[in-house]
Predict the 3D structure of the following.
Amino acid sequence: MRLSGKVTIVTGASVGLGRAVASRFAREGASVVAADVNETDGSALVAELNSEGLDAMFVRTDVSQECAVKALYDATFLRYGKLDVLYSNAAVLLPERDLPIHEISLETWDYVMSVNLRGTFLCAKYAISSMLQNGGGSVILLGSPTGLVGCAPALTAYSASKAGIMGLTRVLAAAHARNNIRVNSIVPGTMDTPMNSYILANPAVREIYRDAVPVGRLGTPQDIEGIALFLASDESSYCTGGLYMCDGGLTAV
């Protein structure tokens, strides 16, 4: 098992990409701390993993609140005494409120930024502080093509928050490379997840998005597991500061 003995935190672990990665990490031998505001699905995930004899616990966490993030790390250290991997996945997408810049409200902008960018910053801050004490680790932050190209012109705040995350990836990687702390970003393409159901539920629109992907299909949570596992494992010991595309070629054309 490729993560045997490692302690991992996965934020946004209750559904979608986070749930898939939390499950894969546990099945690869990691102890998994699943964090989310969705307590029902998060607790169900942990119960499922525990029933298989895997080591996992759930901590309800609003990543936009520093006190909640601190409590998450305190709970992790109380139980395991260290942290090896952070997979920072928690995010919000508000398609009916996140609008072109002349229409979006400051309230919506601030809310998206508080979860997506400040939440990622807080989780990375506490992760790196922890990793500095135990000799290193791996930080994996979730980006988006919307932060690289203008593929979602109506999603002003979401796109800007994801661009910020990828910038944060680079500066943290450079700052902490000599501390044996690796920081990388995974850039998923159009994923068939609950977050995107607002647009993919329409068969005609779904076909448009599918046809735009060079490999000819939408992504699934399982498509993210492999690259997340690689970046979490010691196999990626020479990889830091990278933006790893998992988008079916979407940003290549």
